[in-house]
Specification:
The complex is a heterodimer. Chain A is of the alpha+beta class. Chain A has 21 helices and 40 strands. Classes of the chains: A alpha+beta, B alpha+beta.
C-alpha cells in the first residue's frame, strides 16, 4: 500500500525536513515494513515553471526556434524544437544541472549549457516523457492551466512534492486500523510522541429537505452485516475532481474517475473504510442486505458478469442485486454523468464471508482487501460523515436530503484484557517497569492501569478490538515493539546441558551421501516431487498408486512421485548433452496412495549409472556400487534374489532384489533400465543401470556394531583355478559350491576373470577363481591343500566343469 | 715388507681417489684388494715372516685392509650418488601434465548447508525432527492458528492433493512450511523442547529466477520455562556467527505470522558491508532472514502444552535462500535442475 507523507501530515506533525528514509526505518522497526521510499521532489529538482516571452526563428535550422523564457528570477535564452510552443505559454523548464531523459529514452542525463547549431541554450523546455510525466505527443507539455508564477518549482506546481512510502501489505494483515492514512498517522503519533489531530467521530449532518422521505434499509443477514449506514444526497453534478483530490489519489496509486467515486476512494485511503456510491434513482424501493439466490447474476463494475451462489451476501433493492457486499458494486446502479441523486453506503461486513465470496468469484478489490481484515464497525459512521463533508466541498450543488440511516447489529461492548507484567517481562526478556508499559500502551490509545500490583488492566480501543488484540500475548507485542526490539539485549538461555534426542535417520542420510558422493564418485541431484501422466506412462508405472495434485502449476507436474526414477531419467537425458558417461543419485521421498487418509511417505535413494552404448553389462557396475554402499552400512541379514516385486521400469532379466531375511521385505534393488522405458525417454544410445534403496527401511535396521577379529596367526595358501563351464551356469552357484567344498579351510573365493570368445567353445565360458585356504590353528601342509583341491575339482566336475589350469 | 705395504697403500689410495666412475673404482679395488690383488698377494708372504715381524706387520696389514675397504666404500657411495645425480640432471619431466583423476562425486549444496546447519544447532542441544510433506489442513493451518478464510492463507498459496477429506483434518495439502512439525513434535515429546526441522516445502506459485514451487526451510522451536525473545536474539546471533565465520548481529522488527505472538522478522547485519549499506543489502545494512516470534498460546494448546507453565519461540528461515546467498547463486531453479555442470561446482 502506498502512503503519502503529506497526507499523514494532515493528522500528525511530521517535520518538513525529515529524512524520509529514516522515517521509513523507524516505522519498519516499530510497526510494519516500509519497502520503498520515493521522494518525488528529487526527480524534479532544478526544474521550474517557465513562461515563453518571445519566439524567434533559428538562423541555421528550420525546425529550431529561439525563445526568451521567463523562469522567475531571470529570463533565459532556450532553443526549442517542438512545434507547439506559443508566446505566453507556461512550460516546464529543466535548468542546467537537472536530470532529464532525452526524447524520453535511455538513462537520465545531467543537462549542461550548450550551443545548438551555434546558438547558446541555457536549459531545456520539456516534453512530458523527458521528465517522467505522462507523454505529450503534441510536443511540449502545456502547463498554462496551472496558472502559476514563472519560477515556481515544478514539483510544487504539479503537487509532486510529496514523499511516497510503500508499505508491505503482508505485514499489516492483522492491523485493519492501518489500511488508511488516519490510522497510520495515529500509529506515527504514538511512535513519535506527537499529538494526533483527530477527525470527529460523528457529526450531526445538517439535514436538508426532511420531506424527501426516509431511506429504507433492511438487513436480512444480521451476522454477515454488523452495520449498514446510508444517506442520500441530491443536487449532484458528476464531473472531474479538483486537482488536490486527483493528485492525492494519484500519489497513492488510484486513478481519478469522477468527483463522487473519487470522494469515496479518498475516504477509503484516508480512513480505511470502503464506501460505495449508488445512483439513487437506479435503486428501486430501498436497500436490502440479503443472501444471493443460487445462480443469481450481476454485472460488476469491472464489466464482467458474475454468477452468484447461495450464501454470498449481496446488496439489493426491492427488485435486484445492486452490489456484491464488500466486494464490488453492480453496473446497474453505477454513478454516471447523468446521476443527480446518490445513495452513499458505509457498511461493515463479515470478513470471512467477504473473503470466501471473493475467493470463489476470483475477484479481489481494494474493498475486499480491507473487509477481510476485520474492520471496526465504529468506523462506518465516521467515514460516511467524512465523505459527505468532502462531497459537499467539491460538489457545491450537493445537498443532504435526510438523516443518516444506521442499522446496527453488533454489540458495542468495551473489551478489557488483563496483563501479568511478570509474564510479559519474561517473554520479552527485558525488565520493563509497569509505568513504562502503561505509557507505551496509552500512547497507542489503550487505556491501561495497574489496578493490583503486577497486573495491568487494559481497555482495548474499538479499532484494535475486532481481531488484532484479545489476549495478553497481543499486548506483550505492543509493549515489546514500543519498548523497541533493538533494546532487547541478546542472551543465551541457561539450560541444562543435555544431549538432544538422536535422529539416527538424519545422521545416516548424511552418511549415505558421503559414501555415494565421496566414496563411490556419484553426483547428488534434487528433483521436484512431481511428474506428469506422461511420465507414468513412459515408465510403465501403475496409475492407481499416484496422488494427483488438484491445482497443479503445469502439465509436467500433475502427480506426486511414487518413484525417483522418472525425474532421474529426465536428468540423464539433460546431462547427456554435455557428458557421455556419469553417475547420479537422489535422496528423496515418494508418496503412495494406500487408500488411507495420509499417504505412505518413504525416503528413497535412487542411483543411476550411465555408460557408453558399447559397455557390456552395466548392471554389474550398479550392482557393485549398491553392494559397496550396503557394505558401508554394515547391514546384516540380507539375501539377494532375482527381482520379484513389481518394478515395471526394470529390465525383466537384469534385475536383482535385496531382501531382509527376517521378513522378506525388499530393501534394495538393482537393474538395468527396461529397454522400452529407455526408448520412451530417447535413451537408447546409452546403457543405463540403476539401484533403488528403501532408505526409511535401511535406516530403521541400524548399523551392526563392529567387533575386532584377531589377525590370522598362521599363513594361508592361495591358488588360482580356471574352469570351463556351460554359459547358463550361474556364477553365484559355483562360488557357493567352492566355498562349501571345505567350510573350515576355504576362506576366500574370488572370481578374477570371466571370458567368452576365441579358444572358448560356443555356449561355454571360462572362469578363473582365486581361492584362499587357511587354518586358524596351524600351518597347512601340502597334503591338506591337495585334499581341498580334490574336493574342489569334484564340485566343479559335478557342474560339468572342465579344469583348464591350476596355479 | 712394511715399506712395500705402505707404498701399496699409497698407490691403492691414489688409484681409488683417481677413479672417476664405478668401473675404474672396481678395477682399482680388484687390482689391490682382489683375490689376486697386489696387497693380497703381498700378504700371502706374511706366513714366511718371523714372529717378531708378524707382530708388527700383522696389525699394520689389518689396518691397511680395513682403511682401504672403508675408503673404497665411501668412494663407491660418492660415485653412485654422483651417477644418480647425473642421470637425474639429464632427465626431463613435465610436472604440468595433468594428474591422474580420482573419482569423487559431489554432494548437492542444499545437503551440504543443511548438514552444517544441523550440526551447529545440534551442538546447542537442538534435536533434528521430521514430519510428512503431504500434510493435513489441520496441521498446516488450523493447528497453527490459521483458520479457514483467514487472510493469512494468502501468504501461502497452497497445493491441494487428492480428494481425500477427513473430519478433523480437512483436506490434504503439500505442506507450505515446516511449521506443522512444531505441533507434531509437541504432541510426541511435550515440553521442554528444543528442535529444528529442516525440510522440503511447497508453494503454489509461478516460478522465476527467485521463486520456486519447491524449496527448503529450517524451522526452529525452543520451549521451556523462561524462554524469551532475548534468547532468540542470542541463539540466532550465535548460529549465524558460526555459520558465516564472521561476527554477525541480528535485529528484530515487527512481523505478522498467526502462529506467533509477538511476531517478528529477523534481519542480520549485512556480511558484505558490515551494516554500512551496500547494494547487496539495498543500502539498509540489513539482510532479511526469517520470521519468528513467541509461540502463540493457541499453538501450544494444539500441541498439548500448558501455556501457563511453558513458553518459547519458533522461527523459520529459507535454507534455499541461505544456499543462494552463500554461493551467490542467481537462479533458484538451478538447484532442482539436475544439471551436473551446476552440481559439480560444489
Amino acid at each position: 500500500m502506498k502512503i503519502s507523507l503529506n497526507w499523514l501530515r494532515d493528522f500528525v506533525d511530521i517535520p518538513n525536513n525529515i529524512d524520509a528514509k529514516e522515517f521509513g526505518r523507524i516505522f519498519t522497526v516499530r510497526t510494519a515494513e516500509i519497502e520503498h521510499v520515493e521522494d518525488q521532489g528529487k526527480l524534479f529538482s532544478k526544474m521550474v515553471i517557465g513562461k515563453i516571452k518571445t519566439i524567434k526563428p533559428h538562423p541555421d535550422a528550420d525546425k529550431l526556434r529561439i525563445t526568451e523564457t521567463d523562469v522567475g528570477n531571470e529570463t533565459l535564452q532556450i532553443v526549442c524544437g517542438a512545434p507547439n510552443i506559443k508566446e505566453g505559454m507556461l512550460v516546464p523548464v529543466a535548468l542546467v544541472g537537472s536530470r532529464v531523459r532525452w526524447h524520453g529514452e535511455g538513462e537520465l542525463v545531467t543537462l549542461e549549457k550548450a550551443k545548438i547549431r551555434g546558438i547558446e541554450s541555457s536549459g531545456m523546455i520539456c516534453a512530458g516523457e523527458e521528465i517522467g510525466l505522462d507523454p505529450s505527443p503534441e510536443g511540449i507539455v502545456d502547463l498554462s492551466p496551472l496558472n502559476v508564477k514563472p519560477g515556481t518549482p515544478l514539483a510544487e506546481a504539479l503537487g509532486k512534492n510529496d514523499t511516497i512510502l510503500t508499505l508491505d501489505n503482508k505485514s499489516i494483515t492483522h492491523r485493519p486500523d492501518l489500511w488508511g492514512h488516519y490510522g497510520l498517522a495515529r500509529e506515527v503519533a504514538a511512535i513519535t510522541g506527537k499529538k494526533l489531530n483527530r477527525l470527529p467521530e460523528n457529526t450531526k449532518l445538517l439535514a436538508g429537505n426532511r420531506g424527501a422521505g426516509e431511506l429504507s434499509i433492511e438487513v436480512k443477514e444480521k451476522k454477515l452485516c454488523p452495520r449498514y449506514v446510508g444517506i442520500i444526497m441530491e443536487g449532484i453534478t458528476v464531473g472531474p475532481s479538483p486537482e488536490w483530490i486527483r493528485q492525492r489519489l494519484n500519489n497513492v496509486g488510484y486513478r481519478s474517475i469522477n468527483n463522487i467515486v473519487d470522494a469515496t476512494n479518498y475516504v477509503m485511503a484516508e480512513l480505511g473504510q470502503p464506501l460505495h456510491a449508488f445512483d439513487a434513482d437506479k435503486i428501486e424501493g430501498g436497500i436490502v442486505v440479503r443472501s444471493a439466490q443460487q445462480g443469481e447474476e450481476i454485472a460488476t463494475l469491472d464489466g464482467n458478469k458474475r454468477k452468484l451462489s447461495k450464501g454470498m451476501l449481496v446488496i439489493a433493492d426491492h427488485k435486484k442485486a445492486v452490489a456484491i457486499a464488500g466486494v464490488m458494486g453492480g453496473a446497474n446502479s453505477e454513478v454516471d454523468s447523468s446521476t443527480s441523486r446518490i445513495l452513499l453506503e458505509s457498511a461493515n461486513f463479515n470478513p470471512s464471508s467477504v473473503r470466501k465470496t471473493s475467493v470463489r468469484l476470483n475477484l479481489r478489490s481494494e474493498a475486499v482487501q480491507r473487509f477481510e481484515k476485520s474492520l471496526d464497525p465504529h468506523l462506518c459512521e465516521q467515514a460516511l460523515d467524512r465523505v459527505c463533508e468532502i462531497i459537499l466541498q467539491i460538489c457545491p450543488t450537493a445537498k443532504i436530503m435526510n438523516q443518516k440511516k444506521d442499522v446496527k447489529n453488533f454489540a458495542d461492548k468495551k473489551m478489557t484484557v488483563k496483563v501479568k507484567l511478570k509474564r510479559v517481562q519474561s517473554k520479552i526478556g527485558a525488565e520493563i517497569p509497569a509505568s513504562k508499559a502503561i505509557e507505551f500502551l496509552n500512547a497507542l490509545e489503550f487505556k491501561a492501569s495497574e489496578k493490583t500490583k503486577g497486573t495491568l488492566e487494559v481497555e482495548i480501543p474499538s479499532f484494535r478490538a475486532t481481531k488484532d488484540i484479545s489476549i495478553e500475548d497481543d499486548l506483550t507485542e505492543e509493549i515489546a515493539r514500543m519498548y523497541g526490539y533493538e533494546n532487547i539485549a541478546p542472551r543465551l538461555p541457561e539450560l541444562p546441558i543435555k544431549l538432544p534426542l538422536e535422529n539416527s535417520e538424519r545422521k545416516l542420510k548424511h552418511f549415505a551421501r558421503q559414501i555415494l558422493s565421496y566414496g563411490l564418485g556419484m553426483n547428488e541431484v534434487y528433483n521436484y516431487s512431481f511428474y506428469s501422466q506422461k511420465d507414468i506412462n513412459k515408465c510403465l508405472l501403475p496409475a492407481e498408486l499416484h496422488i494427483q495434485v488438484n491445482n497443479y502449476l503445469s502439465e509436467d507436474q500433475t502427480h506426486l512421485r511414487v518413484s525417483l526414477m522418472p525425474n532421474l531419467l529426465k536428468n540423464v537425458a539433460h546431462n547427456l548433452k554435455y557428458s557421455p558417461e556419469f553417475r547420479l543419485y537422489e535422496v528423496g521421498r515418494t508418496y503412495e496412495d494406500l487408500q488411507e487418509y495420509f499417504p505412505l511417505e518413504q525416503k528413497k535413494i535412487c542411483g543411476v549409472v550411465v555408460k557408453d552404448k558399447k559397455t557390456k553389462d552395466v548392471f554389474y557396475e550398479a550392482k557393485g556400487l549398491l553392494e559397496t554402499f550396503l557394505g558401508a552400512f554394515q547391514t546384516a541379514g540380507i539375501e539377494m534374489k532375482k527381482g520379484e516385486s513389481l518394478c515395471p521400469y526394470a529390465h525383466p532379466n537384469k534385475y536383482a532384489g535385496y531382501y531382509l531375511k527376517k521378513d522378506g521385505s525388499e530393501l534394495a534393488r538393482v537393474f538395468e533400465v527396461h529397454p522400452l522405458v529407455a526408448k520412451n525417454y530417447d535413451l537408447e544410445n546409452v546403457k543405463i543401470a540403476a539401484f533403488e534403496i528403501n532408505f526409511s527401511l535401511l535406516a530403521s535396521l541400524g548399523q551392526r556394531e563392529t567387533k575386532y577379529k584377531s589377525l590370522p596367526k598362521f599363513p594361508g595358501i592361495d591358488f588360482d583355478i580356471s574352469v570351463l563351464v556351460d554359459d547358463t551356469i550361474e556364477i553365484g552357484g559355483i562360488e557357493k559350491a567352492l566355498r562349501e567344498s571345505d567350510r573350515k579351510l576355504v576362506k576366500k573365493v574370488e572370481l578374477f576373470d570371466l571370458y567368452r570368445g576365441a579358444n572358448v567353445p560356443e555356449g561355454k565360458k571360462s572362469l578363473a577363481f582365486r581361492i584362499g585356504l587357511r587354518a586358524d590353528d596351524r600351518t597347512l601342509t601340502d597334503a591338506e591343500m591337495k585334499e581341498v583341491q580334490e574336493k574342489i575339482f569334484g564340485e566343479l566336475a559335478k557342474m560339468g566343469g572342465e579344469i583348464r589350469g591350476l596355479k | 715388507m712394511e715399506k712395500e705395504l705402505l707404498k701399496l697403500e699409497q698407490d691403492a689410495t691414489n688409484a681409488v681417489e683417481k677413479a672417476s666412475d664405478l668401473n675404474e673404482l672396481q678395477a682399482a679395488e680388484v687390482k689391490y684388494l682382489g683375490r689376486k690383488g697386489e696387497i693380497t698377494l703381498l700378504l700371502h708372504q706374511l706366513k714366511d715372516l718371523s714372529p717378531e715381524e708378524k707382530r708388527t706387520i700383522g696389525p699394520l696389514s689389518n689396518r691397511i685392509k680395513t682403511d682401504l675397504a672403508n675408503y673404497v666404500n665411501n668412494k663407491r657411495q660418492a660415485l653412485e650418488a654422483a651417477e644418480i645425480e647425473k642421470k637425474l640432471s639429464l632427465e626431463f619431466f613435465d610436472i604440468t601434465a595433468p594428474g591422474t583423476k580420482g573419482h569423487m562425486g559431489h554432494i548437492h549444496p542444499l545437503s551440504q548447508v543443511q548438514f552444517e546447519v544441523e550440526n551447529i544447532f545440534s551442538s546447542m542441544g537442538f534435536a533434528v525432527a521430521d514430519g510428512p510433506e503431504v500434510e493435513s489442513e489441520y496441521y498446516n493451518f488450523e493447528g497453527l492458528n490459521i483458520p479457514a478464510d483467514h487472510p493469512a492463507r494468502d501468504m501461502q498459496d497452497t497445493f491441494f492433493v487428492s480428494d481425500k477429506h477427513e473430519k478433523n483434518h480437512g483436506r490434504l495439502v503439500l505442506r507450505t512450511h515446516t511449521s506443522p512439525v512444531q505441533i507434531r513434535s509437541m504432541e510426541i515429546h511435550g515440553a521442554p523442547l528444543r528442535i529444528i526441522i529442516p525440510g522440503r516445502v511447497f508453494r503454489y506459485e509461478a516460478t522465476d529466477a527467485s521463486h520456486d514451487s519447491t524449496f527448503y526451510q529450517v524451522e526452529g522451536l525452543m520451549i521451556d520455562r523462561e524462554i524469551s525473545l532475548a534468547h532468540l536474539k542470542g541463539v540466532m546471533a550465535e548460529f549465524l556467527t558460526r555459520l558465516f565465520h564472521k561476527e554477525v548481529t541480528v535485529r528484530f522488527r515487527p512481523g505478522y505470522f498467526p502462529f506467533v505472538e509477538p511476531g517478528l522478522e529477523l534481519d542480520f547485519s549485512c556480511l558484505i558491508c558490515g551494516g554500512k549499506g551496500c547494494s547487496v543489502c539495498k543500502h539498509t545494512g540489513w539482510v532479511e532472514f526469517m520470521g519468528a516470534g513467541m509461540v502463540h498460546p493457541n499453538v501450544l494448546k494444539a500441541g498439548g502444552i500448558d501455556g501457563k507453565k511453558y513458553q518459547g519461540w519458533a522461527f523459520g528461515f529459507g535454507l534455499t535462500r541461505l544456499v543462494m546467498m552463500r554461493y551467490a547463486i542467481d537462479d533458484i531453479r538451478l538447484l532442482q535442475s539436475g544439471d551436473l555442470r551446476f552440481i559439480e561446482q560444489f
